[in-house]
Amino acid sequence: MAQPGEITPYDLLGGAAALRRLVDRFYDIMASDPQAAAIHAMHAADSTEIRQKFFEFLSGWLGGPSLFIEKYGHPRLRARHLPFRIGDAERDQWLHCMDQALAQTPMEPALRAHLQEAFARTADFMRNV
User: How does DSSP assign the chain, residue by residue?
Assistant: First the structure.
């Protein structure tokens, strides 16, 4: 949790509006890029709910309001993703979409590099096969 006066990645990104654009871009890429077909198929046809949950999770993960925790409790990322087969290919497809979304979202290069590294570590942690 961010300390009072601390500038967080959430702040550097531009807050809720910028985060919403990043999340929407990520899911738009996942839905349209043939390289992401396998992970897109793991999601419901209507992505409204997952977009909202991802936005809420990332808000707290980036140091902004802890929206996800307030609604659902601890994220338990690995447990929530266990029903899905996540190997190297799925991790790489997810990162492909996120890297594109980050590249298309205005931010300082240092923040982009920090986020890419953090997302890569987290995506690698999510592998379960």
Answer: -PPTT---HHHHHTHHHHHHHHHHHHHHHHHH-GGGHHHHTTS-S--HHHHHHHHHHHHHHTTS--HHHHHHSS--HHHHHTTS---HHHHHHHHHHHHHHHHTS---HHHHHHHHHHHHHHHHHT---
CB proximity list for 30: less than 8 A, separation 6 or greater: 36, 39, 40, 43, 97
Q: Output the pTM of the full model.
A: 0.93
Give the pLDDT confidence of 11-54 residue by residue, as tens digits.
999 999 999 999 999 999 999 999 999 999 999 999 999 999 99
What is the third-level CATH fold of 11-125? Globin-like (1.10.490)
Q: Is 18 exposed, middle or buried (0-12, 13-18, 19+ CB in 10 A)?
A: middle
